[in-house]
Each structure stands twice: as C-alpha cells, then as structure tokens.
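Researcher: Sequence recovery benchmark, item below. Answer with residues only.
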C-alpha cells in the first residue's frame, strides 16, 4: 500500500476513534467559551437566524468592524468573511480559543482590511453537508449568506467575500469554494479533513463512521463513491472546472504532527492543484499540530488572513479607480 494511503487510513481511523470515544453516560459538555477578549478593531456579539435549511433557529457570531455605526459609513458595504468551525465545536469556538485576538491584530497590522467576520454554527458533526432532513451546506450558502446580506451592510461581490474554516470546517470551506466559486472569491483552510479519493481504501472503522455520525444519509452505508467524491476537496480539485478554480484565492495548511495525520491528504490536494496549474498557497508546518490545541491560531491565521486581505485590498483598489470589482454573487445561490 502506498505510504500516503497508509497515513490517510491511520488519520481516518484515529478521527473515528475519537468520535466513538465520546462516553454516552457523561453529561455533554457544551463548548461555549465566553472569554472576555479586548478587541480594538471589532465589536463582537451573538446573533441568530431562523434557518429553513435545517428547520431551526441557529446562532452565529458576528464581528463588526470599528466605525461600522459611524454616520460617515452609513452607506458603506464591508467585505465579508464566514468562518466554519470544526467537529464537536460551535460558533463560539473561534472567540473562546484565541482566534479573535489574532483577527483583531491582523486588522490592526493591515494584513486584513476591516471587514464583517461571521462565525457560523454548523452543528457538532454535520460535515456541513446536505442531508435528507437538514441541509447544512445550504444553511451557510443560502440562509446565512442571505440573512447577512439583508441584515448587515456587507458586500455582494465575490471578490469581497471569503469562506474559511478549520478541520471539519476547513474541509467544508474548500468544498464550498471549489463548487460555488461564484459566491466566494477566497478560501482559507486549516488542518482540513482531506482524504483519499477512493472510499474502498478506507478502514472498516471509517466505513462504520457514516452510520455512527448519521452520515449514511449522505455517503451511504457502506460509503458510496459518488457522494464521497462530491464532498471530498481532493476529488473536487481534480474534477472541478479548472478555469473557475483559477479565479479563487486559495490558502490551506496542515502540520506534520497533526494528530489525525491530515498533512497527508492536504499534501495530495497541493499536488493535485499544482498538476492542474491552479495558483494556491500551501504551507506544511514542520512540527505543527492539529487545530486550536497546537497554537494553530498564531502559526497559521495571519497567513490565511493575509491572502484574503490581498483580495479585499485589490477589490477596494479597483473601486477607487472606478472599475468593476468582480461579479456580484447571486441571491439564493445553492438552492
């Protein structure tokens, strides 16, 4: 078996074991860190919307830039970033585990222009995929995006919109950007769950994970090749329209000591994009771990914010020159 295939199998097996190790008799611990964060360039608050896609009220976090409520900015539309959390997390995770100070600092340093930054709540194990009963991808690309456009003064142009995420959310951010490039001009993904193309090569533990986490509605039980490949960023990188992929600003990273071994799948993603000559920024972080527990926010977020910031700055420059700054994203996209 190919070395990278072995690494991917180990990664998936470890991820599944972590999921299955949740003790059903132990009271569920809600990860709702309410950390007090001193923000100089944003104000943070929790909001909610009624989502038709998932049939329930869904909370989200929103960072509004300094000056948002100033009279001088009453007609200003701000760039938008949507952040997707990882498995067993929620919309408060970014704020409570160190993402907010890095976001604030990057705006202060000029790496990222002032923007509206939104942390979505995609459920604990949804993978942000559309199921029969709850359409978690549509929650983000339809309900949340339309709610933000109507409720806040955010831009409707793709080159002033970015989607980002970590782990499960990183996988979803890549998938959404690759399949709906008309909605978002940039994607930033960290420690993303990226796997091999053929589900037949997955270990039996992973194949059983579809049923354990309720994913059999999406991937089938056993896992079927077609839905698996539609959700897997590696497969999409190989099959999506290369001309559309080329319009994206793409950033992703993974650590060599990621506890799930996700560096292997992300390396394959890098190679696939390279082969198709799709410009992207890929960082393999030597000694880097997985997600928040490994200081990920300090090692990685400034880099992804800089890539997104370059696009936002270029869009602003085009506007200042009186030029069109990119296509307007269609309303209700994703339905």
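Model:
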């Amino acid at each position: 078996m190919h070395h990278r295939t072995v690494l991917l199998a180990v990664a998936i097996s470890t991820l599944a074991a972590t999921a299955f190790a949740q003790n059903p008799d132990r009271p569920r611990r809600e990860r709702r860190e309410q950390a007090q964060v001193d923000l100089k360039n944003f104000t943070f608050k929790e909001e909610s919307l009624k989502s038709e896609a998932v049939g329930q009220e869904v909370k989200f976090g929103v960072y509004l830039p300094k000056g948002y409520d100033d009279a001088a900015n009453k007609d200003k539309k701000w760039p938008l970033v949507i952040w997707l959390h990882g498995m067993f997390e929620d919309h408060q995770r970014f704020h409570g585990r160190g993402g907010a100070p890095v976001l604030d600092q990057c705006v202060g340093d000029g790496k990222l222009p002032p923007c509206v930054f939104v942390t979505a709540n995609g459920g604990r194990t949804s993978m942000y995929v559309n199921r029969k009963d709850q359409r978690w991808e549509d929650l983000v690309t339809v309900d949340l995006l339309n709610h933000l456009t109507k409720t806040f003064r955010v831009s409707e142009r793709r080159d002033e919109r970015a989607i980002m995420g970590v782990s499960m959310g990183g996988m979803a951010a890549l998938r959404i950007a690759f399949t709906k490039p008309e909605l978002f001009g940039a994607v930033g993904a960290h420690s993303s769950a990226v796997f091999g193309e053929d589900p037949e090569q997955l270990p039996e533990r992973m194949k059983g994970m579809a049923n354990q986490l309720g994913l059999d509605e999406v991937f089938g039980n056993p896992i079927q090749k077609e839905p698996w490949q539609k959700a897997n960023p590696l497969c999409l990188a190989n099959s999506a329209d290369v001309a559309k992929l080329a319009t994206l600003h793409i950033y992703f990273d993974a650590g060599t000591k990621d506890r799930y071994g996700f560096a292997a799948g992300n390396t394959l993603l890098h190679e696939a994009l390279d082969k198709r000559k799709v410009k992207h920024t890929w960082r393999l972080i030597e000694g880097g771990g997985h997600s928040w527990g490994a200081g990920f926010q300090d090692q990685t977020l400034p880099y992804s914010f800089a890539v997104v910031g370059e696009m936002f700055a270029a869009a602003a420059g085009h506007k200042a020159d009186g030029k069109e700054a990119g296509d307007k994203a269609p309303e209700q996209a994703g339905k």
